[in-house]
Amino acid sequence: MHFTLAGLALFAITLSQTAAPIPKASVKDEDKIVGVWQIVSADFGAGVPVPKDNFKQRRLEFKAGGKLVIRTGDKPAEEFEYKLDPAPKVKAIDVIEDGDVSPGIYELDGDTLKLGVVEDGNAVRPTEMKPGAKGVSVMTLKRVKAEKKDK
User: Fold this and answer.
1) Does residue 13 form part of some domain?
2) Alpha-carbon Rg of the chain, whole angstroms?
């Protein structure tokens, strides 16, 4: 195939006028959720809000690659896996421990994360973020800002 310089220039001009703009890369929930989160309110399925003293030292750290680490004060960390599925109308999360799956749902809005996770492994995924639902823990978390270090 042989192109002339004029033909190549005409092709480039035509292509630049007809090509759709390249969309900006969107930040996926898998990237947005990564970080350390502090529970600010919780209902562990009893319909009664849990006193803040019960979870004020608890931190959830979502890591890239699907690792979830939960730390409570000086106690040893608990490690889990998680999988997100942001495609459904109600975004889905699975929390996995030793092969047992606790299905849940989530809402991620900036620095606020809401989780509704079934307590019993292999149960039916909740369909709404409803505190007080039997066997469903509903938590609201805020992102912990990284502390700035003095120079």
Assistant:
1) no
2) 23
- Largest Cα span, the chain: 77
Contact 140, 131 (CB under 8 A): no
CA–CA separation, 117 and 102 (whole Å): 6
> How far is the first Cα of the chain from the last one, in angstroms, to the nearest whole number?
61
pTM of the entire structure?
Answer: 0.75
For residue 50, the tally of other CB atoms under 10 A from its CB is: 15
Question: Going by DSSP bridges, is the β-strand pair 35-43/112-118 parallel, antiparallel, or unpaired?
Answer: unpaired
Specify the higher pLDDT residue, 128 or 133. Answer: 128
Is the four-CA dihedral 121, 60, 140, 25 of positive or negative sign? negative
Here the CATH number for the domain that contains residue 69 is: 2.40.128.270
Q: What average pLDDT does the chain have? A: 80
CA 109 to chain centre: 10
Contact by Cβ (8 Å): 132, 43: yes
Specify if 57 maps to a domain: yes
CA distances from 95 to 1, 117, 122 (A): 56, 8, 10
Q: What is the pLDDT of residues 40-74, one digit of tens each?
A: 998 887 777 788 888 888 999 999 999 999 999 88
